[in-house]
Design brief:
mainly beta; eight-stranded antiparallel barrel; 10 strands
Length: 225
C-alpha cells in the first residue's frame, strides 16, 4: 500500500513539474534597429568659383550741366550732355565668391545730345581699374543672383573740337548680376566716373566753380572662362 501511495505521489509531482514547465518560455530581448542617416550632399554651383571673365555692355553716359561750359560753343546751358550710345568692355578675375579685380574701358560711339541737339566732336572715354565686392542674395544649383560694389581709380576724358577736359581720381559703382548658366551672366550697374572741381582743361590743371560730373548706366553680358 505504501508503495502504491509513493508511486501516485511521484507521478503527480512529475505531472505538476511538467505542466508548470510547459508554461515557461525563454525571454527574447527585443531587437532595436537604428536607421542609418544618409549623407547630405550640397551641390555648390561651379560657376561661383574663381576664374577669368570678360564682358561687353551698352552704356548711357551723362555729364551734368556746368555753368559756362557747353559742348562746342553752344550758348545755352539748360541741359545735361548725354551720350545715348556708348559702349563698355571689361576684363576681370574672380578670386572667390565675394571678391574680384576688374578693368573697364568706356567710349562714346555717337554724338553727344545737348538740349535735344546732336553735337559732333564731343567724345567721352574712360579707363579704370576696380576692386569688386560681391554678395550672393540667392544661391541654387542653377542660378546665382548677386549684388556688388565697385571701388577703384580711373581717368575720364571729354574731347571737344577745341577743348579737352580730363579728370583722374577715385571712381565707384553699384550693381547686380544674374547667372544664366555656369559661363554666361547678365548684369546692370551705375558708375560714377568723375566728380571733381579740379581737373585739366587743355592739359592745364585748375580748380573750377563747377564740378566735372560724369556717370554711366551699364547693361551687359559677361562670359566666364
Amino acid at each position: 500500500m505504501k508503495i502504491i501511495k509513493l508511486s501516485i505521489a511521484s507521478m503527480m509531482a512529475i505531472s505538476s513539474f511538467s505542466f508548470a514547465g510547459g508554461d515557461i518560455e525563454p525571454v527574447i530581448e527585443p531587437k532595436i534597429v537604428i536607421p542609418k542617416v544618409k549623407d547630405i550632399k550640397i551641390d555648390v554651383p561651379t560657376y561661383s568659383s574663381a576664374g577669368f571673365y570678360m564682358a561687353v555692355a551698352y552704356s548711357y553716359a551723362t555729364e551734368k550741366q556746368r555753368a559756362g561750359i557747353t559742348p562746342n560753343g553752344i550758348v545755352t546751358t539748360a541741359d545735361d550732355a548725354t551720350w545715348e550710345l556708348s559702349g563698355m568692355v571689361l576684363a576681370g578675375y574672380q578670386i572667390n565668391d565675394n571678391f574680384a579685380i576688374e578693368g573697364r574701358v568706356t567710349n562714346s560711339m555717337d554724338d553727344v545730345t545737348y538740349n535735344d541737339v546732336d553735337v559732333a566732336n564731343y567724345d567721352l572715354t574712360n579707363a579704370a581699374l576696380y576692386a569688386k565686392v560681391m554678395y550672393p542674395i540667392t544661391l541654387t544649383q542653377k542660378n546665382v543672383t548677386s549684388i556688388y560694389a565697385l571701388l577703384g581709380y580711373g581717368e575720364t576724358t571729354i574731347d571737344g573740337a577745341t577743348t579737352e577736359y580730363k579728370s583722374d581720381g577715385i571712381q565707384w559703382g553699384v550693381g547686380a548680376s544674374h547667372n544664366i548658366n555656369k559661363n554666361v551672366s547678365v548684369f546692370a550697374d551705375y558708375t560714377q566716373l568723375a566728380l571733381e572741381d579740379e581737373y585739366d582743361t587743355n592739359s592745364v590743371t585748375a580748380t573750377h566753380t563747377d564740378e566735372l560730373d560724369v556717370s554711366t548706366i551699364n547693361v551687359g553680358l559677361a562670359y566666364k572662362f
